[in-house]
Sequence to fold (305 residues):
Amino acid sequence: MSAAEGGHTCGVNRRNAVTTHSRRKPSIRRHTARAVVATATLALLAACGSSGTETPVSGSAISGSETTPVTLRYEILDEIAHDDDSFTQGLTFSADGRLFESSGGYGTSSVREVDPATGKVLRSRALDPSWFAEGLAVVETTDGEVLQLITYREGVTVTLDPDDLSERRRTTYPGEGWGLCQLDAGTMAMSDGTSTLTMRDVATFAPIRTVEVTRQGRPVPRLNELECVDGQVWANVWQTDEIVVINPTDGRVVAVLNAGGLVDANRTSSAAVLNGVARIPGTTDEFLITGKLWPVTYRVRITPG
Fold:
């Protein structure tokens, strides 16, 4: 979420227009993959196959339980350099594998395209200094893919061209904006820092309905950055080590991934919280995970634990 999330705004260098970055090329640090057991409650899971190998996380294989959390685990495949000035608010892939990120901060907010293999910022657009950038989603519309950005308390959502980050249009909405993702052809899911998700129309951004997110019958507040995966909503929970997986129909948390090992490795300040998950196109079980002000983005495989 905002600076209120950790009392810190990022120090991203501002540009007055879209810029191409000539930062030093970050390196990818490969190492022996290790499995970390996570606490979970998902409905995206399947049992182990007869061969003894684990079935990848897949929306078609879901069945959740209100009382018995499903255990997910992550396996680190790669560590990719990440701009540690980025106050990450949104992380999202286009269908063709381009990676986009939004970074928040009054006077420092930006949207950038990032090389998913190296972490290098390929281009960046500085935003209105009166805005605090929040969630970012690649949205498929009747006119093709666009980027949809929401703002913290400014009540503005901006549609951007993914090819050059130019603004196409803007719309207003009431309340706060935290996370955003496209759930299906006509619907986006949006969080506002509470336990409520608002489903919004892709074409107009008008609210369609709301759903309260619950975990074993209790509300789950502080839902932050979102990723829609196979008809479900994956949500970072602000100031925790968890990513929860939500059934958007009834709001039940059907799985929980505990990423505490990644958080502990990057806890440089109270503001350096987990906040960024994006599934890698062409895979069913591989994701990028990062956080605010983290120097690393992790490529991980997520499987039932």
